[in-house]
Amino acid sequence: MLVLLAGVLAAGAPQRASADEAPSPKRAEQPNPSAPPARSPDQVLASLNRAMTWYRQARIVMRSVEGSGVFGHADEQAALRLVGRAFDVARAEAALLRRESAAASDASDRRAEGQKKLEESVRRGERDVERLRARLGAEPAKRAALEREVAAAQNKLALDRARLDFLAQLRALESSRSGPDDDLEHQIDALQEAVPELRSPNAGQAVGASASGPASGTWGMVQRLLALQRSRSRLQELEDSTNELVRRVEEEAKAARASSRPIFTRLAALAKDPTESGMSLPESQREFRNLLERRKLLVAVTLPLRDEAALARRYASDLKGWNEVIDRESWQALQGLALDLVGVLGALAVIFVGGLLWRIAVARYITDPARRRLLLTARRVVITAAGALVLIFHFTSRWPPS
What we know:
- Helices cover about 80% and strands about 0% of the residues.
- By secondary structure, the chain is mainly alpha-helical.
- It has a domain at about 340-395.
- Mean pLDDT is about 75; it is low at about 1-35, about 180 and about 205-215.
């Protein structure tokens, strides 16, 4: 065990010597554990597209729903405010990503500077190894000491080359990750062009479907009942989409609050004792300013997220009331259809009762077979014509205009 410990200490000695000649960018490479990474541009755009898809669906439903007093201008404005908050969140997250990209660029510059120093250290180490090997042949009396120096110089050179290779691979990985993102803010602007209502408050005032008048006739009532059932189905789909949107937005708001919490804890610790973690005062102040700026950007994300979640919850709650309105109008339309059909059946019943009385009178008072046949034939013609006229006048006199 002691031999192993001694070997570890001996291996660490060249590392310390190398660190003296080429300062390690360790502090710059390690991310701050109290600053969780922001969401990726793809995640930001996915959230924004989800909100826009919901908004388009809501507009289609508000335009097509059949019913009086279901949707109004205030409902359209609530949906518009919700998608507007989604754009506010996306822009705030784009600002946060831009700030992190700038910080990563600074760290990359520091790593590039450290890589240059390591390259110079490797070249100097190669020269030292060649010089010591030359002395080894020229000074055989000092062979043992020179062999130790050569071994130490070779170990130091191998360590510097390994560190240089690590930094080269790290920079290659960063360059592959930092490819063109098509500029997140420009993509957000392009998506906003698809929602002209956000620029013009009066662009979407005529959203609700025009309230249809009272249905006339059986056919009109049947059509209205079918339209109300289609509206009920669309409202149910919109309610499901709204509930899903509420769930996703609340998850994002929870994640944003969780990201702010460790930053606030670290800020409080630095405010209490700037050097409590063993850092120098300038480093501590730099970290404090960076974390404070990041927290401000996170607050700019959290506030519109909270408003978006509140609007989505209110819209989901309103949808339940609108479904009740549709259900009530469907029941009224069903009652009107039933009453209308009762009137038709009543008229047909009167005709058939009259026909029955006609038949009974003919059978009782007419004894001549020829006249009886003639009167019964006339009875069938009259009953058929009367029933047909009732149905024709009922369905055509109040036929809905095409």
